[in-house]
Amino acid sequence: MYEASIDSELDPNVQLYNPNISEEDTFAKLKALLKRAVESSPFYQKKFREANIDIEKIKALEDLKLLPFTYKEELRDAYPLGLKAVPEAEVVRIHSSSGTTGKPVIIPYTRKDVDVWAEMMMRCYMLAGLSNLDRIQITPGYGLWTAGIGFQLGAERLGAMAIPTGPGNTEKQLEMLIDLKSTALASTSSYALLLAEEIEKRGLKDKIHLRVGIIGSERWSEKMRSRIENELGIETFDIYGLTEIYGPGIALDCSFHEGMHYWSDHLLFEIIDPITGEQLPEGTLGELVITTLTKEGAPLIRYRTRDLTRIIPGVCKCGCPFPRIDRILGRSDDRIKFKAVNIYPGQIEDVIHRVPGVSSEYQILLTRKNGRDSMTFRVEIENAEDPSIKQKTEKAIGKAFKDFIGVTVDVVGVKIGELPRSMKKTKRVIDEREL
Questions:
Q1: What is the dihedral sign for C-alpha 49, 53, 54, 56?
Q2: pTM, entire model
Q3: Rounded distance between C-alpha atoms, residue 350 and residue 339, angstroms
């Protein structure tokens, strides 16, 4: 349950229990953001001028739809510091996206931005039941990427012991888990699974002290969640964030695991139809759009995340007053187009969840021969060394694909642990049709 008895003296300024999240307060923050943008942001001065936007016409929250969207392509075009909305003397740090698909997006942070991010991360830890007595092993990367330093900021604000191992070096990770008695693990789901399998393989489960996993950076299914929890003996919490919007820590699921609470005193969420751009009502699946209400260094207004989710109506059973979004289903731009059918990762995970004896780990190979597309679906299954069980499970998966997605695929069952493991994000789709 969501308890107000957690030691709130860790930071007397944290608004975890009685946040000021009324519509009036949110609108006041939106108006202040718009004022800062037109006065201090060359990026939004130009954008609003070209869209003929008069911020004085924004009279209520419902007028948010009158403002133009902000796209990642625009952020790339602003490289290196075109998003800066404060004097350079106020920028204390920059972070950046990977830039694997073009110029990286560089986000400047002020001291207040860093403090707000640390507070949001601390709230996530508190919501997961962690305190200043915990020891948090941080495996995501450090540097320009936001992940590692974000997890560390929150741990330090909480007063917990941060163990900044960073990515890779599994031998050192296991050594730290055992010798330092880490109680919480921050990682991607792929790396948490890799560690779980190594711990199981080496018979180390009774030597570790983990009880909580804060898992993020990539989609992960309920089946994968169950495997990680069972093999490590922990409770996992799904954390959400983007480099453009601070980094990790803008939302986390509570112990009921019925959606992720997001910090609505700092962020304004809306859901839109990814095709028409129209706002959608609560409970409807669509694309998440975020406005950073209190960000100074690089504020973003109606930023299209491309992440597919919904705002969950009502108050959570845990008692936390902050609103929730559902776990991320996928991205509007990561769908697989196969034989005129759009397939999303969430649909694939739903298929394998329906078939007994199937692992969470899969890999898709898309090929084209003589103008005909083919999909090979490789998936780990239990007892794959038994030909009869393997054949029966492959047939069940193929039928599920046909029944629930409407496509025919070539299913290849492999043994548990046979597919590649990653210390970062696992690449699940290999598309060779354009090669």
A1: negative
A2: 0.80
A3: 20
Q: CB of 294 within 8 A of CB of 29?
A: yes
Spell 290-304 as b/e; 16+ CB within 10 A means b. Answer: bbbbbbbbbbbbbbb
CATH 3.40.50.12780 fits 8-20+107-331, yes or no: yes
Q: What is the pLDDT along the chain (435 residues), one digit of tens a residue?
A: 334 333 433 333 334 555 667 899 999 999 999 999 999 999 999 999 999 999 999 999 999 999 999 999 999 999 999 999 999 999 999 999 865 556 899 999 999 999 999 999 999 999 999 999 999 999 998 989 898 999 999 999 999 999 999 988 999 999 999 999 999 999 988 889 889 989 999 999 999 999 999 998 777 778 788 889 999 999 999 999 999 999 999 999 999 999 999 999 999 999 999 989 999 999 999 999 999 999 999 999 999 999 999 999 999 998 888 999 998 887 766 677 787 777 877 778 788 888 888 988 888 998 888 778 889 999 999 999 999 999 999 999 999 988 888 888 999 999 998 888 765 666 788 888 765
Q: What is the DSSP letter of 158?
A: H
Do the Cβ atoms of 9 and 129 come closer than 8 Å?
Answer: no
The encoded tokens of residue 105 equal 């997006």
Task: Tell me the fold of 336-431.
Answer: GMP Synthetase; Chain A, domain 3 (3.30.300)
Where are the chain's structural domains?
A: 8-20+107-331, 336-431
Task: Annotate 387-408 with three-state secondary structure.
Answer: HHHHHHHHHHHHHHHHHHCCCC
**Strands 303-309 and 330-331, bridge-based pairing:** antiparallel
Q: Are 145 and 272 in contact (CB under 8 A)?
A: no
* Residue 78 structure tokens: 């602003």
